[in-house]
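Entry 12.
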Amino acid sequence: MLDRDAPPGTGVGPAAWIRVAARDAFTAGPIVPVRVAGQALLLVLDEDRVFAVERACPHEGADLAGGRCAGSRLFCPHHQASFALADGAVSPGWSFRRLRTYPVQTVDGEIYIDSTGLIELQHEVTRQGCHSD
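Predicted 3D structure (tokens):
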């Protein structure tokens, strides 16, 4: 059973784990778009490991769902920059921020994302959008 206050299987640490898909969602391919806490994300299957990353490329907002995954990297379909799935680091030669990544756990064939960072991002965007004159 998943402890909603701790990473699945560990019983430690605060987290807000949300079930986002079944492991068999990857039958059509290694990149699966999902929406969590109002944010567009991708689940990416690289060999036997599942990663969760933001869906829009930080360079020009290209939809990374149209990209490809190879060698533990996600490639942008527009400019072919790539991002490390483990930490979002952009390939050499590009000067923009890392791709946002989110903790993932798979428990009993179900994929969970720690939505804590997503909720914080949503609050940050909301605060930036509110201006008082």
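Annotation: Confidence is low (pLDDT under 50) at residues 1-7, 123-128. The domain at 17-121 is CATH 2.102.10.10 (Rieske Iron-sulfur Protein).
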